[in-house]
Structures are given as C-alpha cells and as structure tokens.
Write a structure and sequence with these properties.
With 347 residues, the protein is α+β, with helices and mostly antiparallel strands. A five-stranded mixed sheet has the order 3-4-7-5-6. A two-stranded antiparallel ribbon has the order 1-2. Strand 5, helix 9 and strand 6 form a beta-alpha-beta unit. Helix 6 runs antiparallel to helix 7 and helix 6 runs antiparallel to helix 10. The radius of gyration is 21 Å and the shape is globular. The chain starts with 12 loop residues before the first strand and ends with a helix.
Length: 347
Amino acid sequence: MVKMNDSNRHTSSTIGSWAIMVANIIESYGGNSQAIFTSAGVSLDDLRRNNARIANPKLNEIWLKAQALIKDPYISLRLAKTIKPSVLDTLGISLSVSQHVYDALKRLERFAKYINSGREVIIKGCEEEVVVQVQRSPEDVCEISGVNIETLMSSMFYLLRSMAGDRFKVKGVYFQHEFFHDKKPFEDFFKCAVYFSSEFDQIVFEKQGLYDEVDFSNSVLTSTLDHWIEEYLSKFNVELISYKIQDYLLKHLAFNDIDQTNVADYLKISPRILRRKLTEEGVSYTELLDACRQKLAFNLISDSSISLSRLSSVLGFCDQSNFSRAFKRWSGSTPLQYRNNKLKCRK
C-alpha cells in the first residue's frame, strides 16, 4: 500500500507535505525554496508524491538554511497561520472531524509518528488541566531544530483553534530551546504565558471546554481514516531494517551478549549488507544500540531488586562507570539519583 523513495527512508522522518509547507513559507519571504532543498539533496518533486517522507536530518538542514536566509525569529508563527488539515495529510483530516478537542489530542498522541516518526505526543491529565508533551522517541537518534518544534506545537494549537474556536483555553506553553528575542508575539499567538529554556516541550490546557462537541465531527470518517493510518504505520515500520534491529535488540539485549554479527545472522544478511542498509537509512548500529540501551535502562531502573552493577551488566556495559556516564548523558542525572527520585515519586 505504501511506497517510499529509498532516499527518504530514515529511522526518523517527517511526512513530505510538511516539508512542502516549509518550501511555501520560504517562497512567501521571497526565498528560493528549490535552491535550498536542492542544496540539501532533497527533490521537491519527489516530496509531492503520495506517501513521500523526508529524513529529519535533511529537514533540519533545510530549516537552518531557511533561517539563515530569512532571519525572522517568528517564522514558525507565520508558518503555523498557514496550516490546513491537508498539510497533515490523512491525519489532518481525521483531526478536523474529531468529536472534541480532547478526542483530537488523543488522536495526535496515538498517531504522532505519522507526522514525524521521531516524535511522541504524551498526554498527562489531572482534575483541572491536561498537559500535552512533545517528546523525542526513545529509539530516535536525530535532534529536532528549535524552529521545527515551535512550528509543530504552534500548528497543533492553530488547527485545534480552527476546529473548536474559543471552546478551550491554554494556561501555558513551554519550549526546551533558548530564545533570545521578544516573547510577546508568541504570547499573543497562544494567548497565554510562553516559556523558553524549559524542562519539556509542552502545552498546558485548561480541562474545561476540551470535551465540548465541535461542529462537523464525524465518528464514522475518523474510524475509517484511523484504520488507514494504522495500516500505514505498520507497513512503514516493518519495511525499515533499523526498526527490525531495534525490535530484536529490545527483545534480546537484556541478559544476552549481542553484537552486529548476531543481529545480521538473525536478519539472514551479512554484517556488510547490514551496515550498508543502515547507512541508507541514515543511522548506525552503535546509535541504535545506544537508543535501545537507554529505553531498557529507563524501564529497569525503578526495579530496586536489580543492583546498578547488575543493571550495567544486563545492558552490556563492560563496567558500571561506563553505564553511569551513558545514563547521565541520557537523563542528566546519575543512575542512583534517577532511581531515588523515581522511588520518592511512588510514595
């Protein structure tokens, strides 16, 4: 069902229509989008084909080139104001006919990887508010540019506004990256306080109004579109050899001594072909191993019955000090600090 150009396959990628929107905004500033995309080795014609995707490192490179040319710190807001459901392809249409804002948010949480396979949307709720976080997927190895995350979150907000009007309110918007200009345009756009250099990329919604049914909702259509997206994501992931490797590592890494040769044998290919295929997808075996170790470490760290020395051995580290350095790189804290904080939160 889904055909993808090999040059666009990558562990993390974004739907082609999103990149086309970036090209259009470059043109609106008088820039030459064709030249910028070509210099990054990306064909705009290929991106206009059905089901095309662009590797996230390429999209980040294009963003950097566009920013250097345009020099507008508020380009993300200008772009968000042009967003239409069709930019998000099938998912955008499904969002636009969701029952209410919370239903749309849950759909974003469920299908965020359709837009960007390197991002996850996590929804956390309490009695008075709903927090929507945009997080890097544990298996992703690509950073995302600040302007891209601004565009993603402001576009999400703008689509919800166009769908539900003033039925909902936002209490605060938080970005992890730094911003050295006036925040007021962002606060005018979101109609709330906006913070940079935050711990998370997130939007905090007031709970009131999120469940008000909106005009033109269509549960039959959303069900049909959701099924198509599920089929797409299932086939997309299975086709990527990096996905197969991650799946194998996550299932067998703990308590087993695994190297590239073991993985190649499992896939019934030579180590040389394995390396070549990963290069085509823009990721290395070392990066995948590191991402899988990270995911397993976060899953096991709260189990106090496993000593930290044992955990480092389970994950294949030669000694505990190497594990500690890796864990601090992943989380910003030592394994012991992280475990103690987790245990405190449970009490």
